[in-house]
Write a structure and sequence with these properties.
Blueprint (H helix, E strand, L loop, with lengths): L4 H5 L2 H11 L5 E4 L4 E6 L9 E7 L2 E9 L7 H14 L4 E4 L5 E8 L5 H31 L3 H21 L5 H7 L1
Antiparallel strand pairs: 1-2, 2-3, 3-4, 4-6, 5-6
Helix pairs in contact: 2-4, 3-4
Length: 183
């Protein structure tokens, strides 16, 4: 299905910016040559500081945010398993473990109307949907990150053993004379 020339001329970013201001949404805006990115604070139960970005380019939109960054390499296999399970549960969102160890959540969509009210209804409804899905994804991800590995237990046991040995060395030796005085 070919899109009309009129549809291509619609500036969705300008419509969204104007409507966000009218509805008193809190957001920041960055314009680039091929896209506009809105950053919207969306506090959630499991992520009070959550900020979701909305990237608008031509007739497409993408909501995205980073759930966590710098995932330790030894946790990445387990995190991938959690992300795959979450992807089975939530069909329309993408959860990706990036090469740098960051977890990115994103949701892509297209605009199919020229009606400004319908455009905003689509954007706001999708924004809240994405926020709720991300909020539900955070606990299993964080539990996996905070979970101790078998390797962690072995390292702690070794450290405790070494500390015990050091403590024994620091204790002063008792004289035999001192022991007889205590009897």
């Amino acid at each position: 299905m070919a899109r009309s020339k009129k549809s291509v001329e619609i500036n969705y970013a300008e419509i969204i910016e104007r409507k966000f201001k009218e509805d008193e949404f809190i957001f920041t805006l960055n314009r680039y040559e091929t896209a506009t990115i809105f950053t919207i604070p969306m506090p959630a139960k499991n992520a009070p500081g959550l900020h979701i970005k909305l990237k608008i380019s031509q007739m497409d939109g993408r909501f995205f945010t980073y759930i966590s960054d710098e995932i330790p390499k030894k946790k990445r296999i387990k995190i991938l398993e959690v992300l795959n399970n979450l992807l089975d549960r939530y069909r329309y969102i993408s959860l990706c473990l990036e090469d740098d160890g960051s977890i990115c959540a994103s949701y892509d969509f297209s605009f199919y109307t020229e009606d400004e009210d319908l455009i905003m209804r689509q954007v706001v409804t999708t924004l809240y949907l994405v926020k709720d899905i991300i909020d539900n994804c955070i606990p299993p991800i964080m539990m996996t990150l905070w979970q101790k590995d078998d390797d962690d237990d072995e390292e702690e046991e070794t450290e405790e053993f070494e500390e015990d040995e050091e403590d024994e060395e620091d204790e002063p030796e008792e004289d035999e004379d001192d022991m007889t005085d205590k009897k």
